[in-house]
Each structure stands twice: as structure tokens, then as C-alpha cells.
Amino acid sequence: MRSLSLALTVLLLAGLASAQKHVSFSAPDGYRLHGDLYGKGLRGVVLAHGGRFTMESWDKQARILAKAGFRVLALDFRGYGQTISGTQTTDDKSYPDVLAAVRYLHASGAKSVSVVGASMGGDAAADAALAASPGEIERIVFLASDGGDSPERLPGRKLFIVSRNDESSEGLRLPRISEHYRRAHEPKQLVILEGSAHAQFIFDTDQGARLMQELLRFLSEP
Q: Is 7 in contact with 212 (CB distance < 8 Å)?
């Protein structure tokens, strides 16, 4: 953990000036999506925001990941931010948006693609993983997400990460996330942070640096 902390400090001190490029691409159902692209690495990462955020909320984290050598795509889900027009789908699930972002990164040169999904974005990432072709999604971070209704079917490497006292209207999230983690197949990891912040809000707390370290560690593991 000390080496990861040092690496993160070096990245921050080096500045967060990685080039950012706005891109647009189509979901499988024809809906036109928008995203911000950072970096040019061979390892791709899709950043899928939570329900109270847009793609801009990932800017700092995306720049850190790009500095670490990743090609990063932060997307706006349909109905959020700049993704407000296109052919409306009758399916209210947003997994086609995540899958389209994954395929965009593959098509633009990424040799592998992982997804970091926060809350709603994590649920969409789980659905995308079940709909994807084998190998399209290498690993997934479920940030305050339980990984959907069928965690035992999820392929690839999985990191579940949540604040210990994160609470929804139905109660603490940790018990359900822990149960879905138990049902998921290896390889898998569970990280519990202190505090009560939910999903991307964790980055603005004293656990923010720890969360970023865990993301870098998991996404960089061979």
C-alpha cells in the first residue's frame, strides 16, 4: 500500500494535464452517446457515473488514470449531461451505453477494457458484462453497487468497494453488497472504506485518496 500511495503522490505532483478529447458514439439501439476521452494507453477504462453525476464528475480521477497509462472514457448516460438527444429506446436500462463505451475503446486501440461503475453505473456495468462477448470486459469495479441480480454469472475480475455506513432508504448497503460478493465467482475482492459517503461522493472525503489507490491497484494488477 505504501508503494501505491507514493505512486499516487507522484502522479498528483506531476500535474493532471492529460489531454482530454470530447467524443460521441452510438449505442447498439442507435442512441447517440457522448463522452470525454483521456490518455492513449493500451489498457482502457470506462468510467460510468452515478445517478446524481455526469461524465465531468470523473475529470480528476480520469486524469490520474491517464497519467498512469490508461486510455479512459468517461461517458454521459442517456438523459444525462450532453447525452440528451437520439433515438429513444423502450428499454430503460443503461447497460447498452456502457457496452457501447467499451466497444468504442476497443475500436480506438485499447487491447483490454475495464469498467468502473459508481452506484447506478455499477448496476449498468453488471448488465453490460452479462451482455458482452467473452473478453470484451476484463474487470469491473462496483463502487457502492451490488453487481446486479446475478452476481454468480459475472465474468472476469471483480472489485466491490463501499463505505461501511453507506445507507440508502432501505438501510445499509454493505450487507447486500457483501452477500452479492459472496455469490460472485473468483477472482474477486471486497474493500470496505470507513465513513458513510456514497459512491463518487467518497472522493471528496478523507477516504478519497484510499479509494483512488484501490482503483489504481486493482486496474494495474497483472
A: no
pLDDT on residue 182: 98
Q: Which residues neighbour 142 within 8 Å (Cβ) at sequence distance 6 or greater?
A: 117, 122, 125, 126, 158, 159, 160, 161, 177
- Of 73, 84, 85, 24, whose CA–CA distance to 49 is shortest? 73
Q: What would you report as the CA-atom Rg of the chain, rounded to the nearest whole angstrom?
A: 16
Q: β-strand 167-168 against 20-26: which pairing, if any?
A: unpaired
Tens of pLDDT, residue by residue over 63-112, are: 999 999 999 999 999 888 777 754 444 345 578 999 999 999 999 999 99
The pTM for the full model equals: 0.90
Question: Which amino acid is residue 141, in one-letter code?
Answer: V
- The number of beta carbons lying within 10 Å of the beta carbon of residue 221 is 11
pLDDT at position 91: 44
For the four alpha carbons of 102, 108, 114 and 120, in that order, the dihedral sign comes to negative
- List C-alpha distances in Å: 18 to 22, 66, 142: 13, 7, 25
**2-220: CATH topology:** Rossmann fold (3.40.50)
- Sorting pLDDT into bands at 50, 70 and 90, what band is 10? very low
